């Protein structure tokens, strides 16, 4: 086990109807609220009206229209400006991981005098950030229980994971009923994203028995419950279990004391969605089995055997490579079965920019230090195999 | 899944040599320190000198001699008095769970004007508590990552679990090397305590797939790593994995959203160690399999089947009751194998006070609301079967 230094101060309020506690939680933080949200699905499900009704005694400034793969310009910049102009005390993010990621960058930018990109690009370390409360409407990123956010800058094709302990939400409201209306496409993509979060922590050189068991439980829970959500979108128990497994995805609990992995699939996928603005979870589902095939070797095969036996129930008596390859195939087929397009061409990505993306990834993502180190050529090969 | 409201603000600093960060952590909290510890094992392993050297710029007041099953009188009362007399800013607990539990009660008592028993007995809710930092030397209770402590009051045979969110340690230093010198007896008892913490969360009516997987991983990790620690007390990896699995035991992560269990084995054992001052983990190991046999029924058998198959690898094709009984027997034999005396008589408890203890438990522990409700007669039967 490696040394670690771990703290997750966020309060999780989980379950049906918990939003009634919102005014009490908000009142303890501040009165002037920046309400951030996306394309308006929160209006369709009545959540927008509910929030305004509960916060009728607060001063609300709105930042709507935050997109998936949230953009530095205009969303982060607009949010920072609104916070400064209106002396905002607290940001209330209502939506999925993109809205929350964007809100985190705004929270830091609002307390900084210069260009917020200085912070996101790690040129300057934030000294403070506005407090954030969130109401989650999509189970996937785990942003509600971590201190990171991913921000895209279109003109430079940058997609940066901005991480700072100042960015833990103060409180996350997790009501699984808000995810009943999430489409099959987004439910499946959310599952793939959350599963990949766990895989990025599972495929490492040094892991504890406990962490392996946690990761295997997370993966199995996500697979079983996602299928149940797709079969019956209003299945409370399945939506709840899926939400909870996603929430734990990025806060470290699945991998405390494990050696680092470098998060290679995320490193590769960030370029895909920066260049082509595809759905992050779909990009991950496409990359993951190709990356697995690529890194399978005598060094890694035992890890794949453990994965195959404990997650997919493959017979441990089989040949090691047979188990490993079967596990990778079962990963692929699971994603296919839940309806994810499994080729880059299916999501509008051809071979034209593979070289350019591989170069961008090699320069920016540090995958030469991944569990299995990846060169620019390796990355191009994984991308080509994903076409 | 049940609704839940969860927050664990404690910072965990884990691994070999992490104590070097102590001055930095302490300096951010305060200068006047109450140093609490037990019988002096921290002097034998050099930790006492190390702490004093690291904190040479702090004002240290000492409270030594805190016993296992820590006592209200004198330890809590002395600690509260020392805090008030010396205007203590922060308590530094160096030792195992008993020292830390005692420190928590002191932390609350120090900020209260009346008799600290008012707080521990829930007559009065604490409004504040001193901050606590701890350096752990024994893997077992999980007190380093929860907000509870168990305090004994000898004259009334009370042993109360005092829980308040104010009592989360600010920071827990977890260096597995400090547990190298823990005796075989205490290592085994620590394992039994930690395993029972998980079982108390696993044997419930409603549990998520994720929690079941977490609990099963925790139990398996504890069993494998405890055996490794007993075989080689200086096995860093085994000590580290054991410490980490114990740390997560009582902070809720093993059972978020599960229905409550009532912690029946702890309820019963608290009377044993209150009346006879036995080692808590040994009492739990003795009670657990008898309690299991007692509650095995058509209502609970499926839970025992899951436990037997997933924790002990019992063939799922066998008859349900056969699996359940085998799982209970394997639990018993595991405790026996790691050297725990498995009869109450072995730890000096005869049948003389069973009626009295059963009555005390029935009145004070609320086990009529446990996973399987227990009456005074039931409790007496479990105790008698444990003789």
Kindly list the characteristics that best describe this protein.
homodimer, 387 residues, alpha/beta, Rossmann fold, Dehydroquinate synthase-like, alpha domain, 2 domains, six-stranded parallel β-sheet, two-stranded antiparallel ribbon, 15 helices, 48% helix
Characterise this structure:
2 copies of one chain form a homodimer. Chain A is of the alpha/beta class. Chain A has 2 domains: 11-178, Rossmann fold, CATH 3.40.50.1970; 182-385, Up-down Bundle (Dehydroquinate synthase-like, alpha domain). Chain A has 15 helices and 8 strands. In chain A, strands 1-8-5-4-2-3 form a 6-stranded parallel beta sheet. A two-stranded antiparallel sheet of chain A has the order 6-7. In chain A, helix 4 packs across helix 5 (97-109), helix 7 (184-202) packs antiparallel against helix 8 and helix 8 crosses helix 12 (301-312). The first copy, chain A, is globular, with a radius of gyration of 20 Å. Chain A binds chain B through residues 1-18, 176, 208-210, 212-214, 216-218, 220-221, 224-225, 237, 240-241, 244-245, 248, 253, 256-257, and chain B through 1-18, 176, 208-210, 212-214, 216-218, 220-221, 224-225, 237, 240-241, 244-245, 248, 253, 256-257. Strand 1 of chain A pairs antiparallel with strand 1 of chain B.
Task: Outline the secondary-structure elements.
The structure is a homodimer of 387-residue chains.
Chain A: E1 4-14, H1 22-27, E2 32-36, H2 41-44, H3 47-54, E3 59-63, H4 72-86, E4 90-95, H5 97-109, H6 117-120, E5 132-136, E6 148-153, E7 158-163, E8 171-174, H7 184-202, H8 209-231, H9 236-247, H10 264-276, H11 280-295, H12 301-312, H13 320-337, H14 354-364, H15 376-385
Parallel strand pairs in A: 1-8, 2-3, 2-4, 4-5, 5-8
Antiparallel strand pairs in A: 6-7
Helix pairs in contact in A: 4-5, 7-8, 7-11, 8-9, 8-12, 10-11, 10-14, 11-13, 11-15, 12-13, 14-15
């Amino acid at each position: 086990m490696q040394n670690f230094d771990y703290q997750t101060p966020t309060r999780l309020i989980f379950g049906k109807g918990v939003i009634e506690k919102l005014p009490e939680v908000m009142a303890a933080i501040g009165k002037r609220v920046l309400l951030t949200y996306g394309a308006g699905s929160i209006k369709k499900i009545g959540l927008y009206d509910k929030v305004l009704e509960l916060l009728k005694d607060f001063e609300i400034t709105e930042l709507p229209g935050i997109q998936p793969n949230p953009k530095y310009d205009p969303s982060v910049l607009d949010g920072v400006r609104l916070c400064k102009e209106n002396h905002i005390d607290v940001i209330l993010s209502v939506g999925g991981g993109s809205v929350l990621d964007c809100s985190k960058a705004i929270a830091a930018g609002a307390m900084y005098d210069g260009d917020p990109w200085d912070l996101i690009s790690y040129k300057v370390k934030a000294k403070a950030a506005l407090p954030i409360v969130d109401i989650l409407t999509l189970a996937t990123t785990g942003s509600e229980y971590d201190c990171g956010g991913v921000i895209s800058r279109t003109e430079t094709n940058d997609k940066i994971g901005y991480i700072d302990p100042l960015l833990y939400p103060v409180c996350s409201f997790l009501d699984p009923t808000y995810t009943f209306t999430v489409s099959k496409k987004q439910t499946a993509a959310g599952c793939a994203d959350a599963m990949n979060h766990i895989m990025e922590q599972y495929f490492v050189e040094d892991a504890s028995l406990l962490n392996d068991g946690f990761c295997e439980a997370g993966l199995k829970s996500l697979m079983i419950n996602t299928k149940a959500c797709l079969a019956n979108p209003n299945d409370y128990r399945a939506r709840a279990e899926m939400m909870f497994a996603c929430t734990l995805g990025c806060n470290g609990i699945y991998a405390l004391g494990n050696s680092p992995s470098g998060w290679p699939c995320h490193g590769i996928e960030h370029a895909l969605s920066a260049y082509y603005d595809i759905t992050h979870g779909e990009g991950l589902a496409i990359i993951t089995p190709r990356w697995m095939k690529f890194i399978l070797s005598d060094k890694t095969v035992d890890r794949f055997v453990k994965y195959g036996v404990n997650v997919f129930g493959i017979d441990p008596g089989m040949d090691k490579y047979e188990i490993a390859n079967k596990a990778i195939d079962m990963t692929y087929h699971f994603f296919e079965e839940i309806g994810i397009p499994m080729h880059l061409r299916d999501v509008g990505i051809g071979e034209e920019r593979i070289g350019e993306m591989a170069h961008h990834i090699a320069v920016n993502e540090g995958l030469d230090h991944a569990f299995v180190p990846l060169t620019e050529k390796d990355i191009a090969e994984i991308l080509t195999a994903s076409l």
